[in-house]
Structure formats: structure tokens, C-alpha cells
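Quick one: structure for this chain?
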Amino acid sequence: MGFNVSDLQITTATTSGVLQALGGFKFPSFTTATRPSSPSVGQTIYNTDVSALEVYDGSAWEEISSGGAFATWAGTGNRPSNPANYTVGYNTTDNQIEVYDGSDWIPVALGNPTVALTATGGDNTYEDNGWKYHVFTSDGTFIVTAGTDNVEYVIVAGGGGGGGGDVGAGGGAGGYRSNVPGFPSGGGAAAEPAMSVSPGSYPVVVGDGGTGSASSPQDADDGQDSSFNGITSLGGGGGASWSSGSGRSGGSGGGSVSTRAGASGTTGQGYAGASGRGGPHYPQGGGGGAGGPGQNSRDNDNAGNGGIGLVNPFGRVTQVGEKLGNNSYWLAGGGGGGVESNARVGRGGLGGGGIGGRQSPNTDPGSGIANTGGGGGGEDSGRGGSGGKGVVILRYRLPE
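Got it. Here's what it folds into:
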């Protein structure tokens, strides 16, 4: 039997052959509450509450799969009004897949699954309490051979040198950046966002410290930048010498001489350097640190201390940094200011900053501690202390 009509309504039909509709079938529409009360096995309807076809399997109505395409709606007000348990759809307003759990709509997180990393690289590696640590004290490559997961980092640049040649100020610490939850980044900033890595090679650059100045008209050299996977910490600013000016900006700023303001630090990395004084003893300013600004010379008898650094959140395991107490290691302290004579030199900031120098009685300026990014101390007649080299430390979860 054949029909060739534009619109055919059939109340009940049983066919053993193929029923064709060139314009498509329109199934009767019901809500969940108004479905047929005595359906036949195989009966198919369109449920307007869930925006999907359903077929009766003899005991329950089952939603017909749409081949992987979810029903869509915009916003919360356009969701199905009486959804069945575990109804799934895509909310185009917030770009989230949502599933109905019987009482509420629950968003389903989208993104790359995490798979434990396998990686090599660094001058030293450690495993502790479910984490693996890679410590780069020099340039290298972090190579991920398998997995996709988050990496936590501490990236410290080289510290600035201290001023000298005539009485000079302390160098600024290298910039300090970190994304370790619960620990700050430099300059008073919060921890940076999570970083996910996948198989590949990631160059690591560890900045050297800047050379101290031995010439009164010249600032000391800046430290060099450190970097990993698009994150760059800036080298610390060089400290000023007596005839050179105000010091140099950097991750943390170099200290200044006379009453000039110290150089600025970089937002999210470190603080500014500090100012000094003139005669009779010429005490000069300390360099800025990652955790606090350099200290101004308090009076004619005291040069400024270097700014404090920040604790290394990986210090207990890696033992990298200036040690304080049993398990506390600090990074990125500023260099202390120098004096001419008969006054107290500036102390280096906790975190590897070098002590300031003095002509009489002689005290040699200190260099920043290696792999802390500490600033060099200022000097009087000789060369200021060099900045400490930086460091890059990475860690990630080991397989459970």
C-alpha cells in the first residue's frame, strides 16, 4: 500500500514493511507528566521537558541518544523545566556542560585531564612526600617525556651589584616570581596562576648577578633575567655610586646615594631601593628585596640595610637559600649600603643580600649569596659586591 500525500495523520498503524516519510516524521509531544499511561513497547514520543525523543522499552521511558550532540539552552531560565535524573545539556551562556542530579544542575568541568608527569632536567632533583623537585642553578632544559599536569615554580633572577669607587649603595635583589599556593610572589603580590605543562622541551635560564661598580660616576651592573616557560623574573637593579645618581630599576631597585630616592622595583617581583645621606660619614641606602624595600640610612652613623627577601617554599627539601633556623631558607634579599668611615655599614637583607663596605676601619663589601638572587653590598673606595646568581625551582606531583 502506498500513500503520496503532503500530510497524513495516523491514529494507529502496524506495518511489516518500510514506512517512509520524505519530509520527516513528527512524533507526538508530551511532557514527562503527560506521557501515555499505557504505552506499547517501542512507542516513541518527543518529551518537551528534556527536549529529546524517548522510547518505551517495556518498563521505562528511555531517552534516545542524539549521536553525541547535547541539547542546548541559554542561561538558567531556559533549562528543561521538569528534567529526568541525569539529563545532560550544554549551557551556551557560560559554555558549560550541565547534568541534572535529581535536585540541581551541576556543571561539568571542561579541560585537559591531568596525568602524572615524567620529566628530566636540572642540576639537582629530589623526591619528597609525593612531589618531585627540579633545581636549576644554571641554564638548562626541563624535558617532559610523558603526562600533562600542573607545575609549581619559584623563579629568581640575578641580583644587582653594589655601588663603589667612592661610597656606594646596595644592589637590588633579583625579581622573585612564584605560583606556589599559600605563598606570596615578590613585591607583595599573591601567588601567580597555575601552570600546566605537557610533553616537550622547556628552556630554563638562570640569570647571573651584576658586577659591583668600582667607579664613582657609574652605577653597578644589573643582574640578569631568569625565565621558564614564558615567566621572566627581571634582574635586580645596580646600586648607585657617589657621583652616578639614583641607582637602577629592576626586579628590586638599587639603592641610592645622598638624599636621592632609591630606584623602583617591578610590580609582582620586588621592592624599591632606599636613599642615603651626605657627610660626615656618608652612609648610603640599601637595595630593595623581594619581601620589602631597602632601608634608608637612619642617621649619619648608620647606612641602610638591604630589603628583606621571601622564604623559599621548597627550602626544606632543596635547601636553597640563606638559612634561618632549622628549616627556613630565604631568597632575594637586597644589598646593604656602604659608608665612608667610622659608621655602621648596612646589613644585607635576609635572603642572600651582601653586607655594605667601609673604608675605615676596613670592612669589605659582601656579594650576594649564590643562587639566592641577593643584591651586592655598597663599597667606599673599592669595588662594590657582586649580586648573587639566581635560581629556578620546579615541582610537580608524583604518581600515586
